[in-house]
Amino acid sequence: MKQSKLFLLLEILMVSAKLGLTSFGGPIAHLGYFHDEYVRRRKWLDEQAYANLVALCQFLPGPASSQVGIGIGVMRGGLLGGILAFVGFTTPSVVMLILFALILKGMDIGNAGWIHGLKIVAVAVVAHAIWGMAQKLTPDLSRKAIALLALICTLLWQTAYTQVSVILIAAVAGFIIYKGQKEDSPATIQVPLSRRFAFICLGLFFGLLIFLPILRELTGSSLVEMFDSFYRSGSLVFGGGHVVLPLLEREFVPSGWLSKEAFLAGYGAAQAVPGPLFTFAAYIGAVMDGWAGGLLATFAIFLPAFLLVLGTLPFWVSINRNPKITGALKGVNAAVVGILISAFYTPIWTSTIIAPIDFAFAALLFCMLAYWKLPPWVIVVTGIIGGYLLG
């Protein structure tokens, strides 16, 4: 029995590691890879259970694709299965981005042409993400209006509290507008976790969110400050990796922990590696405090996602049958689109598109990604070469 359990856990680790090495293209693409591997090929769960799990992870803040992977690991092999699924999927991109940060550390990269090329890649990638998400998440006038108001508020009042407030107001608006609409009831997800354990995880999630800022003020420790910033960023992000950009930028660039050039260079490099975009935190942590800082940042930014998945899986079926909850989620998702556009304008657009040639090159990269359907690593390589030649 123990041997079969060990083989099961090793299988989870190996399959997730293969996905971590090959899953390019962002969270939507990751969900497609997961569906092909876990549902079609291995039949670890059926279509309805997978759709149910994806709905849960879209509802929660944090990296949706990573949370789906964790949930599948939990359903397949319990708590340890979830941990191994996360480790396998995340480790390849963490290692690559930490190495990239260590190579760049100490270099004068502010005026390097290839760095400017990476920044233009970031423009094309985020524009493509906004385009796809807007089509899916703002299909009607009400949600378009929520997105517009979120854009205006987060653009004119650029604070961490603004984004949280906008998300809460959007949830209330969605609750009011869509509370009468009924959704199809999902099938039951079988989860080998108790509700008592789920309550412990949720208590830990909210406890850390409240306690870490207090500990930060009391100790003045740079490590606690760093952990708190990454944990809070991972706790308050709806919509996946691209939305974490403004939170991380406002946490670390104004404070001088890293330059805007280094920040956007890492963001461009994160497009070139497979796996979740949240591993961008590993790059920031490594720039700030070497490889140990990269590992600490990775643990801190993904910890909320882990606690939320473990804390909500046992309750999701009853939650998802409530049309008021799904209505609130529609409002939140619409606000995410507005927040994304705000982040696209500043810091990405304002610090990157300076001359007409920059806009022309960004348009070329966008078409390569959106219309010619070229893989992201091709876009990144083209951006580096083009930036070098233009520089």
TrEMBL record:
Sequence similarity: Belongs to the chromate ion transporter (CHR) (TC 2.A.51) family.
Localisation per UniProt entry: Cell membrane
Pfam families in alphabetical order: Chromate_transp
Descriptive protein name: Chromate transporter
Membrane topology listed for this record: Multi-pass membrane protein
InterPro entries noted in UniProt: Chr_Tranpt_l_chain, Chromate_transpt
Superkingdom, taxonomy of origin: Bacteria
Keyword terms: Cell membrane, Membrane, Transmembrane, Transmembrane helix
Transmembrane segments: 83-104, 116-134, 146-177, 197-215, 230-250, 262-285, 291-316, 328-347
